[in-house]
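re: ur msg from earlier - yeah i can do the 6-O-phosphoryl inosine monophosphate complex, just paste it... oh wait u already did. ok heres what im feeding in:
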Amino acid sequence: MVDVVLGLQWGDEGKGKIVDVLTPKYDVVARFQGGPNAGHSLEFGGNKYVLNTIPSGIFHEHCINIIGNGVVVDPVQLKKEIEKASATGVNIKKSLYISEKAHVILPTHRLVDAASEAHKGEHKVGSTLRGISPAYQDKIGRSGMRIGDLLSAGFMQKYQGTVAIHRKLLDSLNYEYNLADHEAAFFEAVEFLKQFKIINSEYFINDLISKGKKVLAEGAQGTLLDIDFGSYPFVTSSNTITGGACSGLGIAPQKIEKVFGIFKAYATRVGNGPFPSEQDNATGEKIRTLGHEFGATTGRPRRTGWLDLPTLRYAIMLNGVSDLICTKSDVLSGFEEVLVCDAYKINGQLSKEIPFNMQDGILEPQYKTFKGWDGNLSVMRQYSELPETFRNYMDFVQGEIGVPINVISVGPDREETIIR
Ligand code: GDP
Ligand code: IMO
Ligand code: MG
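and the outut:
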């Protein structure tokens, strides 16, 4: 069977850490969407690792790691990642499998991403500039190139045709660029990738499932960045919800058993777009500093705010979350008060639902205030050791959303985890 791990907020909930913690129970970890816009951090043995495209099961020797068909792969980024992981002693050739149907991010996709963001000016999405949206646009527009195409004789011709269209687009946006430098690295990376296992991953994964192997599907980004249900247009270009695991790996819905939904004890967002419970003030700054809230991929400071229950309920509904995982509660230690947005006031009416446009500025978050907690939570390993005020906070959240919080992460390290 297949279990799914995904983020319930705007990304960076701690998916990488949690996948790494859960991997010993699984035979396979498979990424199902997104690309190198993701930055998944793992910490163990005093070292920190950031993965962008490689699944977060890679540091466990027994584990098969699959980059699914729903992922967009930048050969240049993936080469860098493989080299970094290999330097730590991981045998990537043995444990990494790449779907032949995953789409390729070309150098011109990155340029088009930058050009269209520049063109949007102050209305820009604040993308990671990794070429994600242009690559998915070509996929949906039926003109994309797939990993399997890299191996075919017609590769160069197809590449040139696609690039010619991108060049026209770049010219129309008056974007200046020098493609030659990027292309050299791209072709080198394409050759490099040919030594890895490029496979039909839907047969491979279903075969493993039928043999009783346990699969953990790893999501990227978060539910509020989902292309359909996120705060459109300030979203990413893929389905980040549980449904994305089916289309992004080729597994049937009945195969999915547990859905682990991760949320931070507060909220963050990187990039533009609505964030009702944002604290653009000293409190937000304190959360950012204590939580080291800077993007794992771009280094950008993350916007910070309080936990938002209407969006959390929405995310749980969309994903069919069976188990909740709360991360970063240790960061709030020392706060006198911790607030939770419980509902919104929209045009004078209380609502617990997400309106069509979250960005209209008519949405006033309604807060409940909780007494904060103290002490170093990162050394605690039993739920009963956690401060009573924190447990009250968790009880409230759990009561409001009706799904058990089964794991509490109290620090970035593998070991800093409490399983109830
Ligand atoms: P992901 O994209 O969901 O994998 O999350 P990121 O890796 O981008 O961001 C999460 C950050 O928080 C990383 O720096 C993690 O090492 C760190 N982290 C994860 N869980 C915890 C936790 O429970 N407490 C603290 N203090 N840090 C955590
Ligand atoms: P992980 O997997 C946080 C955000 C970008 C931007 C929007 C669109 O680490 O949680 P894109 O480059 O996808 O076109 O950018 O989505 N974004 C993320 N924010 N975590 C991520 O991934 C993100 N991936 C994209 O900041 O607002
Ligand atoms: Mg991240």
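cool cool. The first strand starts at residue 2 and ends at 7. ping me if u need the other ligands too
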